[in-house]
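Input (Transposase IS116/IS110/IS902):
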Amino acid sequence: MKLKRIGVDLAKQVFQIHGVDSHEQAVCRKQLKRSQMLDFFRQLEPCTVAMEACGSSHYWARELRVQGHEVRLIAPQFVKPYVKSGKNDANDAEAICEAASRPNMRYVEVKSAEQQAGQALHRIRSRLIRARTALVNEIRGLLGEFGLVESRHGVAATRRLAQAALADAENGLPGQMRGLLVELQGELVEHEARLSRLDETIQRQAREDERVERLMLVEGIGPITATALVSAVGDARQFRSARQFAAWLGLVPRQHSSGGKEQLGPINKRGDTYLRTLLVHGARAVLRHCQDKADRRSQWLQRLLCRRNPNIATVALANKNARIVWAILSRGDCYQPG
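Output:
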């Protein structure tokens, strides 16, 4: 069977196929089991295969590329306008196939297994940080009910508060609560140990990847941000310009223009929230120490702070760093501080 383009609606066990020929006529509509997927495509001549970008799409894209097919991943929000009627697997597969025929369609870059493993590392670390924060708040809240408070914030202050509460036998803390506090303290120590191991893994990856080392030369980008960026975008060549990369991260103004009148608002916050958060936090750290420096970058930040809100200056620096990241990854450049 000679097919020009195939749309695949992915699932866990059942996959829907919609294929068209060179005349854009539908010639293949069928449902495949998971075990039949690779055998079906192995019997076809190389063609274009389109799928929605989802959890398993990168795996299937790598497998089908090995068989010689050209795989294109499309963000789900770009497929939805092509769904002609009610939602079902057949209509979704047809919509994916139709969306892939558009000459100006934007595609998602296929990630390597190493990139996905790197992103998994960061997701686990982010989840552990959220769990640790919730645990710290729980400990402080429970002790506060017994009149035991600490003016300072943070993990270290909470650890000291718990230790002091257990050491003081005259603070009126019931024995049952002391037992619970010991368990919570052990849970906090375990979270800290797991986070330390993950941080060591990230530091090792940073030393082994020259792309990460080049990114870390930029002020405001450390090993966590650099490894997260490399895991997410690879060489960043899927973006045509630095501005497009910054827009993908949601670091450009939201636009609502009409009739030739340009209206710009706050940043649109589209794209990867985790990467944007890392860049903004790194930029905020740079701004905190720019007043004592005389280099061109610091002078630009000082002038910007004189006329704009610090939060606006922070986002402006994060935007600039994102564009520098694109140049470093896509062109193989090294950062030259100015």
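The mean pLDDT is 93.
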